[in-house]
Design a protein that fits this description.
Elements lengths: L2 H15 L3 H17 L4 H11 L2 H12 L4 H11 L2 H13 L4 H9 L3 H13 L5 H12 L2 H16 L11 H10 L6 H16 L7 H27 L1
Helix pairs in contact: 1-9, 2-4, 2-10, 3-10, 4-5, 6-8, 8-9, 12-13
């Protein structure tokens, strides 16, 4: 395989991942702004994004930090939100699992919703791609996402230091999560999982440190999985 082929794969990944700019810029800016409102410095906000690079987990941790939850609760909650990354990794392994260790380590760090969705769709559509081509495509797909996430975290954090406390921008966190999950309601199991998670979370609202949300999430996943299994058995028996 020639260098040109690998370069072409990278450029195609770059082009396919570029539309996410429209989401990353406001989302990263919002995180930086809310992080400074929660008491983090601009540098701390940037380090947060550099280390975690996972929007949903960062917003979850940020909300718990505002509630002065114990560090262990913050870590467990962020890890729970990011459990989907383990599934992403398992799904990508058949395609790039034989790449050099340093490439796999870098890909693991850069595995986010955007890079995974774009890459897995391309890999399934083009099974003839070689491992180096797939790795190049993956890095191309995230080449706009990661830098802009860092840059606009700083932009939002700088702006956040100039926003009056009276503006109370905390409401933006639940709105952001609603915008993220709404497009995911693609099957009846997804809808049931969301419904059960909401109901259980409301019933468990009194649990300290927002752990009711984790309980609701687990209940929702179990309900969705149970419905999917039931529907598969029903289709198999018909």
């Amino acid at each position: 395989m020639t260098t040109t082929t690998v370069k072409s794969a990278f450029l195609k990944g770059f082009a396919d991942g570029s539309p996410f700019i429209l989401v990353i810029i406001p989302f990263a800016s919002l995180f930086g702004l809310l992080a400074t409102e929660a008491g983090l410095s601009v540098l701390e906000s940037l380090v947060f994004s550099l280390v975690v690079i996972a929007g949903a987990a960062q917003f979850t941790a940020l909300q718990l930090l505002q509630e002065e939850a114990p560090t262990v609760i913050v870590l467990i909650s962020a890890l729970a939100v990011n459990l989907r990354m383990a599934m992403y990794s398992a799904s990508l392994t058949p395609y790039i699992g034989s790449a050099p260790l340093w490439q796999r380590a870098f890909a693991a760090y850069l595995t986010v919703d955007q890079s995974y969705v774009v890459s897995i769709a391309e890999f399934e559509k083009r099974p003839e791609m070689t491992v180096p081509q797939r790795v190049a495509y993956f890095f191309g797909a995230v080449a706009t996402v990661a830098p802009l996430w860092y840059i606009f975290t700083v932009v939002g954090a700088v702006l956040g230091t100039q926003v009056p406390d009276s503006w109370a921008l905390d409401f933006a966190i639940p709105i952001t999560f609603l915008a993220m999950i709404a497009p995911m309601f693609r099957t009846l199991a997804h809808v049931l999982a969301a419904f059960v998670a909401v109901v259980v979370s409301l019933l468990a609202a009194g649990v300290p440190y927002s752990m009711g949300v984790i309980i609701g999430g687990l209940a929702g996943m179990l309900a969705g999985a149970a419905l999917e299994k039931y529907l598969e058995q029903k289709r198999g028996g018909s």
